[in-house]
Amino acid sequence: MKYSKMKGFRDIFGEDIEYWQYVESKLKSLFTSYGFKEFRLPILEKTALFNRGIGDTTDIVEKEMFSFEDKDGEFVSLRPEGTASLLRAYIENGLINNGVKKFYYLGNMFRRERPQKGRFRQFTQIGVEVLESSSALLDAEIASLLYNSAKVLELENIVELEINSLGCKECRPDYNELLIAYFKNIKDELCGDCNRRLERNPLRILDCKNENCKKLIKDAPVMLDNLCCECSDHFSQVKKHLNEMNIPYKINPFMVRGLDYYIRTAFELVTTMLGSASAVGAGGRYDGLIKTLGGSKDTAGIGFAIGVDRLVEILQQSKKIPIRQTDYFIVCFENTLEHGLKIVKSLREKGFIVEYDYDQSSMKSQMKKSNKLDAKFSVIIGEDEVNSLEVTIKDMLSGYQKRVSISDLCAINRD
Ligand code: HAM
Q1: Domain end (from 318, 348, 382)
Q2: How many domains does the chain have?
Q3: Residue 398 sits in the same domain as residue 299
Q4: Helix (H/G/I), strand (E/B), else coil: 155
Q5: CA-CA distances (angstroms) from residue 288 to 50, 137, 202, 282?
Q6: Using a 6 Å cutoff on CB, does residue 279 contact ligand 1?
């Protein structure tokens, strides 16, 4: 019996993993430099958290969650995103009301979508959330951090930051009425899903993937033309601060995002390198979500999540990253093993990547192994080398070799 992985799930290893680790470590240090602290969250949560947090009428909740009834009768889901979980944890751990909080998280998310380029059923997000400030300067800081996440990987030329405002609970209801009036007239041309959306949540129509609906959406009224004074002023401030920060952006009045919790600023980092899965990362402001999830106060919040799978994919298409190779392969034999192991230990403690032959095979076969591992140097420790407290060190690229004292070899530092 042979087992295979499930559709939309992947094994990640070999050279790919080098890119993953590179991206994750660059982003972790970037977020740390902005003052974010890591938050580790559970992968499984109660289904109700996502229904309430993300919204009943979103594709994620309607169609895409991996949900099941646990043995004790509880309905649970593999998390499809991190924001609802983080806010649940924030409320549950009593972190509200102690000033601005900045967290980042990294982990697997699960959505039962149709797998295609850049779209998987298990994928990884690295995200940030900032709580307890509704300042437009913060919106600009977070959108700029999303842009800078591509910049630290030297990918800024193949991504674009798009921003929009989705209004607030004051101006959105009037805008919804405009949308209903517009789409009611062309109801028969909309897909079945959009007909239901028209009844339950008309804004969701703007997020429809159906090609015919997309054409009809082009002439629909946009939120940006219908913002209240506060939202309009907030959006102007965000743009002004982005300009001050020297962050290039484009306004996309049709961006609505696939989750219901957003108000005011929404943004996406898009690329043309991933086919239809164009967003490498996305986010926005969600003041009010904490209250919706049971927090006692109307607390402000904003954040984004980057699809690490997608970022890795465009990085691999764009450039080669430095991949660390084995520094030393220590060739030793039964009677020189003790010396060999001391040298292995000493070089590893200095931070070098050091390997040796566990099978203690012949000299020829050990040199072959060194070659196969692409080691920079082989260090040969034969009996007469041990007697003179020396080793032979061979540069595997040039083939040049020389004798050096064991103490000199152990004194080498990584630059
Ligand atoms: P989202 O737009 O649903 O937002 O996802 C954020 C990013 O996750 C996307 O831009 C994409 O790069 C990646 N992503 C989503 N689905 C898939 C998939 N099936 N396969 C591969 N990558 C995927 C959120 O999840 C929000 N929680 C972001 C946020 C944080 N908003 C505020 N704070």
Answers
A1: 318
A2: 2
A3: no
A4: coil
A5: 15, 19, 20, 19
A6: yes
167 occurs within a structural domain: yes
CA of 12 to the centre of ligand 1 (A): 20
49 is a domain residue: yes
Pocket lining: 111 vs ligand 1, CB cutoff 6 Å: yes
Domain that holds residue 375: 328-410
Q: Whose CA is nearest to atom 15 of ligand 1?
A: 307
Find out whether the beta carbon of 122 lies less than 6 Å from any atom of ligand 1: no
DSSP E strands in 207-311: the ranges are: 250-251, 263-270, 279-285, 301-307
Model confidence over 212-269: pLDDT tens digits? 999 999 999 999 999 999 999 999 999 999 999 999 999 999 998 889 899 999 999 9
Model confidence, pTM:
0.94
User: Do 139 and 89 share a domain, yes or no?
Assistant: yes
Q: What is the per-residue pLDDT across 115-168, written as a single tens digit (0 to 9) for each?
A: 999 999 999 999 999 999 999 999 999 999 999 999 999 999 999 999 999 999
**Residue 53, ligand 1, Cβ within 6 A:** no
> What is the CATH number for 394?
3.40.50.800
Contacts of 12 (CB under 8 A, 6+ apart): 20
Give the ligand 1 atom nearest the CA of 129.
Answer: 33
| Residue 266 within a domain | yes
Q: Does ligand 1 come within 6 angstroms of the Cβ of 258?
A: yes
